[in-house]
Design a protein that fits this description.
Blueprint: E1 12-19, H1 25-32, E2 41-45, H2 54-57, E3 66-68, E4 74-77, H3 82-94, E5 103-107, H4 115-123, H5 125-128, E6 131-141, H6 145-151, H7 153-160, E7 164-168, H8 175-184, E8 193-196, H9 205-212, E9 232-233, E10 242-248, H10 255-266, E11 272-280, E12 286-292, E13 295-296, E14 300-301, E15 313-319, H11 323-333
Parallel strand pairs: 1-5, 1-6, 2-4, 2-5, 6-7, 7-8
Antiparallel strand pairs: 3-4, 9-10, 10-15, 11-12, 11-15, 12-13, 12-14
Length: 336
């Protein structure tokens, strides 16, 4: 049943960093953890020694797998469930055993489907007591990215669920090829903000990190949201049937209609890869809505003013879901 409760204001934001094998995710993370931008960040690595921090993590005892980098960043090799790892970090922080951290970044393995992790972050009650899901960041190889997405379902899913796409290895890509992949990626995820991971002197680690950890990364990007109330199919039906739809609801939504809408979408089960929305409710508040598969996170009340076209925007990223089925769900929210 849908709930209108929201995580506490002090909940620690958690970002998911994903990307297919060879996409440059490890290189990017290895560089960032050594920068001042990560000084108050805890990084959870989901397989011991997998990230390129071998000189720090390999050989560490299992009972003391949290390593403090010179930059101040905490690196944690996740040897238990994600829920247990987050809880352990939180209470060690509370007891002063480790430095206080302002955010958590979870790095996934290259072959992982990120949906279960997002589900845990967004819907697990034990996690929601202290943390909130703040967005998914996916690295894409500028040289081989499109071929990888076409060949591997996991890569296509990683791109489809992202709030931010980071195009890596841009220095190894010629101008024409770089332009081609930049123009092609919106077909796979029309609402994700795209950044190039150049990390030059003029656009260093601090600015780069701050860009993909801003609050805007959790909301539908205004550039991809139409102002009209009609649905717009922005994505193409790709090899794996992954499609994106954007809708807009102009009037406040009642909690009764919202609960009915959630139950209707849950019937589609695994077809619903990701849903993001910013809805005005009839209690006078505005809420961010997140869902992965059939699990909806508790609506998160937004304290900052939200204007059109983001206000009322609903982005559905689904697999093998027709336009008619998506529109039928939206009609529940705003019946004629």
């Amino acid at each position: 049943m849908a709930s209108n409760s929201s995580p506490p204001d002090e909940a620690i934001p958690v970002y998911l960093l994903t990307g297919f094998l060879g996409s440059g995710k490890t290189t990017l993370l290895s560089r960032l953890v050594r920068s001042a931008a990560f000084a108050d960040t805890a990084v959870i690595i989901n397989e011991f020694g997998q990230v390129g921090l071998d000189h720090v993590l390999v050989g560490q005892a299992r009972d003391d797998d949290v390593v403090l980098m010179d930059s101040g960043c905490l690196c944690c090799a996740m040897s238990t469930s994600l829920q247990d790892s987050l809880e352990t970090l939180y209470y060690r922080r509370l007891r002063g055993e480790i430095p206080r951290f302002a955010r958590v970044v979870i790095e996934t393995s290259g072959l992982a489907d990120p949906a279960p992790l997002i589900t845990t972050l967004g819907a697990d009650v034990s996690v929601a007591r202290h943390y909130r899901f703040a967005g998914a960041v996916t690295t894409v190889d500028a040289v081989h990215g499109l071929q990888t997405i076409d060949r591997y379902r996991e890569a296509a899913t990683q791109v489809a669920i992202a709030d931010r796409l980071i195009l890596t290895k841009t220095d190894l890509c010629d101008t024409v090829s770089l332009l081609n992949i930049q123009q092609a990626l919106p077909a796979y995820n029309p609402t994700a903000a795209l950044r190039l991971a150049t990390l030059t002197a003029s656009q260093g680690e601090a600015d780069f990190f701050a860009d993909w950890t801003t609050p805007s990364s959790v909301a539908p990007d205004s550039a991809g949201v139409p102002a009209s109330a009609s649905a717009l199919r922005l994505g193409h039906v790709l090899r794996y049937g992954i499609t994106s739809f954007t809708f807009h609801v102009d009037t406040p939504v009642s909690w009764t209609r919202y609960a009915k809408w959630v139950r209707h979408l849950q019937q589609h089960g695994d077809a619903l890869l990701r849903l993001k929305a910013i809805l005005a409710m009839d209690d006078g508040e505005v809420y961010a809505i997140h869902a992965v598969r059939h699990l909806f996170s508790p609506p998160q009340r937004l304290t900052q003013p939200i204007a059109a076209p983001q206000l009322g925007a609903i982005v559905i990223i689904a697999q093998d879901l027709s336009r008619e089925e998506a529109e039928a769900a939206i009609e529940i929210l705003s019946p004629s």
